[in-house]
Amino acid sequence: MSARKAANKAINCVRFDMEVHQPIDLEGRDLQVGDWVRVITVPLSIQGMPADSLEAFSRAVGHTFQIEEFDQSGCLHLDMYPKVSCDSIYIEPYCVRRFRRYKKLSKAFQKRLAILNSLEEPRLEVEFEARLEPGVDLESFGFEVISRGTGGDFAVWPEERKVKGCITVEVNDPNARTILEAARQKAYEMRGVESFEVSEVRVRNEI
Q1: Cα separations in angstroms, 106 against 101, 103, 131, 162
Q2: Which domains does the chain have, with CATH numbers?
Q3: How far apart are alpha carbons 143 and 196 in whole angstroms?
Q4: Mean pLDDT of 124-146
């Protein structure tokens, strides 16, 4: 951990483990890929998200969608196209109710899953969460952090001045771990940060 002379204080750097949700709906029934679920409510975690993100979640309420996959935190990936909009969302399992489960997935959905899986190359990742000082551009900060890997994603919460996401590198890259370890160290030294939380290097989508 290094001191930030510009602000005359140290960045708070602590490790964190992402909360992992069990695949259980709001009525206690198990969920799996291919299940149809109805979105009943939206999570409190969307507070402070950009307006277009809030609109996407609001549109989903009351509609049924088929579970495409679960992300590394156990959230459901729901594709809203073409039923509602061109958006797709990741939502906590306790916000949905299982609507239908087929004994056998349709050929169309199996084909869709095959395409999705073929596009998802194994990756290593480092997750991060930063709270920034007033005046720091959240999106620019997020892009700067993930640019230290070969990919990644992030979300911003303007009211909380928070940026949360992950830096990723393909597993087959011989320098993957070295790149991510260097990214972790560089992230500690970024200016305009009040606090920074970072995980160890691990395999993406490993639950």
Answers
A1: 11, 10, 44, 41
A2: 36-119 (no CATH), 122-203 (3.30.70.60)
A3: 16
A4: 88
